[in-house]
Structures are given as C-alpha cells and as structure tokens.
C-alpha cells in the first residue's frame, strides 16, 4: 500500500520535578536541604530511513509521545533524562505544522534529522534555592511541560526523471523495459494507481532514478482523476519525459493531449511547467503513416520543445535513444533542493512565560487579577502556606515587574491581588 500523506500528534517528554528533601542523619544536626533536580524530558526527532518508501507506518499509529524526565530525589540525586523518541520517515518527507500550515523541515538527504518537539526542562530541587538567609527552603521547581503539536507528513518522491502523460500512453511499459520495476500494465486507463520508481542502468551512461506518475489528466490541478494526489511527486524531478500516444487508436489527438497536460502543469506550478521536457511519441509501431509523426514533431517544435523522439516501448524501438538523451541532459542540469519560499517556512516561537493583569470590581473593592503561563508555573513551584516559600513568591513577582506594573495601574493599599485561587492584600 502506497501512503504519501499522514497527520500525526507528537509530544515531547515533560521535565521531572525537583525534589524537596532535607538531609537527616545521625551526628549531622544541620544537614540542610538536599533535594535533587528533575531530569529533562525526551525530544521527538524525525530521522530519514533510506529503506522506507511510504508513510504506511503512520496510517494506524497517530500518537507519538516521548519519555518524561524522572523526578529528583533526596541526597541531591538528579532524575534521569527521558529517552528521545526517534521517528523514522522516508527520504523526501516534508514536515508541516498543521496549525499554521508552514513547512518545518524538508528531509531529502540521507542522515537528515529534525527535532520537532523539544523536551521540557527538569525542575530545580530545593538544594538549589538555599541561601545565607534562606537556609531551609521548603519548595522546589516543577518540571517544564513538553511541547506538543499536530504535524502533517507529505512524501515527495526523489526521482531524477518523471514520466508524464495521459493514462494508457505507455509510461509504465517504458519504466518496465528500462528498469527492474514491475508496474502493473494493462490495456485500460488508470492501470497505475501509485507512483512507481525504478533505477535506469544502461551500459555507457550514468544511472538515474525514473518515476512513473499516474493519474494526470485534464483538470488534474483542480482534483480531477488522481493527478492532484500525485503531481507533488514530480516537484523534485529535474527532467520530465512527456509520453504521448501517437498511434491514434483511441481516437485521441497527440498534440492536444500534450497541450492539456502542460496546461495542468502550469496551473499546479509554473516551475514544473518550465522544467526541461523530452517529448516522446510512443506506440510508433502502430502508425499507418510516417507523416503523422513528422507533423506532430513540427507542431511541438513550434511550441519551443526541440527534444522530440519517436518510440515504441513495446518493441524497444527508439527507447535507448530516449534514455541516452535523458542521461545527457541530466548531466547538464544541476541537482537542487526543493524550493520553499520564506513565507511558507515555519519559524518556531521562543517559549516565554507571560502574564496579563485585568481589574475587576467586587463589593466596592478593586481586584487585580494576574493570569497567564507565568502565574501557572509560579504557583506550581511554591507553597504559599510556608513562610520561606511565600517570601520567594513575592521576590519573583517583584523581579518579574508585576508589582511595578500594578503601581502603574493605580493599585492602592488594601486592594486585592489574585493569582488563580490565591489572593493577598496589597500593602505599599
């Protein structure tokens, strides 16, 4: 089964919590705090696996979650870091952020890897909060949560040459005679329902990869037929071999077919339409008049395409000439990575702990409500019922600038400050 699109949920590991612990040993009356830090959560990493050819592994498995960091312990024991989660994907996979629809990474080379979610940082144990004036801190930091997101995976085949043309013009036959690929071949339309790859290896020329792209017909760029599903697979090709049926046995006009397919390329991507093409008039063994090919070649030349060949894939007549010309042209066409515009690239936002302040009126009192990720993390880290911890709580609010902002907003003695379900009376 060929699967080239998938949508999965990924989450990195949460950081382990710091430990609140005190050294208590016989003959050590002033042992002090000895809580260790929590371990870091595992990352989620996509890695290219050259042995994979489809995204079939992601058809049924949709959630991938990395290991959490282990909590810290007493005796200054640090928690173990969570193991990274390695997700293998085929070469040519594009990773896209579902929420923004931006491209996060293009994994198109052996050994490519991308960290899609970074693990949460481990929290500090209470040993890290001991100072000359706070010798027995009864609080520790919680671990940072891991990142999570839905990502889309899109496979774009890595081939040097793409075979282009209407169904049943002989693309699969050509692929089968010049490579060891075994595509399905039959005398009806849409025989090929998935892209087929093969390596062309002919004595005297450098080997290259050829792909048979199925289902491209008139209207493919708008979703007609199978074309919209598979047009993406020729985006990485450097050269297109455009195959047409010159025999006319199905009552089709080869020139019209050629124009229609190129119109679909232009609608889908101007860069594809502008890609070098070799035009191949296939099924020449069934021609009743040689002038038919000459007239076809003349019209194609007038459109600006000078590489036009007569061929019969079934009898192998003219096939070697086409393949050698493709190899020659590939030597002159540089290998370039898939071009992704800067507007389509995903730029990760720096994770910051922020807060907002709003004013509520309750029983003729002003209540200043402080909320946000900063508040959630701070309240998780401290025990407001413990004096030393409460002092640390106020110190963090002061250092963060919360008190300065409250004063700018006009807070007065006796006004209430609320952080989630914890309230205190403001005193100048």
UniProtKB/TrEMBL annotation:
InterPro entries: G_OBG, GTP-bd, GTP-bd_Obg/CgtA, GTP-bd_prot_GTP1/OBG_C_sf, GTP1-OBG_CS, GTP1_OBG_dom, GTP1_OBG_dom_sf, OBG_GTPase. GTP binds at residues 165-172, 190-194, 212-215, 282-285, 312-314. The keyword Cytoplasm applies. It is found in: Cytoplasm. Residues 159-331 form the OBG-type G domain. Residues 345-428 form the OCT domain. Pfam families: DUF1967 (PF09269), GTP1_OBG (PF01018), MMR_HSR1 (PF01926). Its cofactor is Mg(2+). Mg(2+) binds at residues 172, 192. Its main location: cytoplasm. The keyword Ribosomal protein does not apply. Residues 1-158 form the Obg domain. Keywords: Cytoplasm, GTP-binding, Hydrolase, Magnesium, Metal-binding, Nucleotide-binding. One of its GO terms (cellular component) is cytoplasm. Its EC number is 3.6.5.-. GO terms for biological process: ribosome biogenesis. Belongs to the TRAFAC class OBG-HflX-like GTPase superfamily. OBG GTPase family. Monomer. An essential GTPase which binds GTP, GDP and possibly (p)ppGpp with moderate affinity, with high nucleotide exchange rates and a fairly low GTP hydrolysis rate. Plays a role in control of the cell cycle, stress response, ribosome biogenesis and in those bacteria that undergo differentiation, in morphogenesis control. This is GTPase Obg. It comes from Clostridium polyendosporum.
């Amino acid at each position: 089964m060929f699967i080239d699109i998938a949508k999965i949920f990924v989450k990195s590991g949460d950081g382990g919590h710091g430990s609140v612990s005190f050294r208590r040993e016989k003959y050590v009356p002033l042992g002090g705090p000895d809580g260790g830090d929590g371990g870091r959560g595992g990352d989620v990493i996509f890695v290219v696996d050259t042995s994979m050819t489809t995204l079939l592994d992601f058809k049924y498995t949709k959630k991938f979650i990395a290991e959490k960091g282990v909590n810290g312990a007493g005796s200054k024991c640090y928690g173990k870091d969570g193991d990274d989660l390695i997700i293998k994907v085929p070469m040519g996979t594009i990773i896209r952020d579902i929420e923004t629809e931006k491209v996060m990474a293009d994994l198109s080379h052996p050994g490519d890897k991308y960290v899609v979610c970074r693990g949460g940082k481990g929290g500090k144990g209470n040993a890290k909060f001991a100072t000359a004036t706070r010798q027995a801190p009864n609080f520790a930091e919680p671990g940072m949560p891991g990142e999570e997101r839905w990502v889309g995976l899109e496979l774009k085949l890595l081939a040097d040459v793409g075979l282009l043309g209407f169904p049943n013009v002989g693309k699969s036959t050509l692929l089968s005679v010049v490579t060891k690929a075994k595509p399905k071949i039959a005398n009806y339309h849409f025989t090929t329902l998935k892209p087929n790859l093969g390596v062309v290896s002919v004595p005297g020329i450098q080997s290259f990869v050829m792909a048979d792209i199925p289902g491209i017909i008139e209207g493919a760029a708008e979703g007609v037929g199978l074309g919209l599903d598979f047009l993406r697979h020729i985006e990485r090709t450097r050269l297109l071999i455009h195959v047409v049926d010159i025999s006319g046995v199905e009552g089709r006009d080869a020139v019209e077919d050629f124009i229609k397919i190129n119109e679909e390329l232009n609608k889908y991507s101007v860069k594809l339409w502008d890609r070098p093409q070799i035009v191949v008039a296939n099924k020449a063994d069934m021609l009743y008049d040689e002038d038919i090919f000459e007239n076809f070649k003349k019209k194609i030349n007038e459109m600006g395409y000078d590489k036009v060949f007569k061929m019969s894939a079934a009898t192998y007549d003219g096939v070697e000439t086409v393949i050698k010309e493709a190899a020659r042209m590939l030597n002159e066409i540089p290998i370039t990575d898939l071009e992704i515009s800067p507007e389509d690239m995903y730029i990760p936002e720096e994770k910051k702990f922020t807060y907002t302040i709003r004013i509520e009126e309750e029983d003729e009192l002003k209540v200043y409500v402080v909320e946000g990720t900063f508040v959630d993390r701070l309240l998780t880290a401290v025990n407001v019922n413990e004096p030393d911890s409460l002092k640390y709580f106020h110190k963090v609010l002061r250092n963060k600038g919360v008190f300065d902002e409250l004063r700018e907003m006009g807070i007065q003695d006796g006004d209430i400050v609320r952080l989630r379900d914890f309230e205190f009376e403001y005193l100048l």
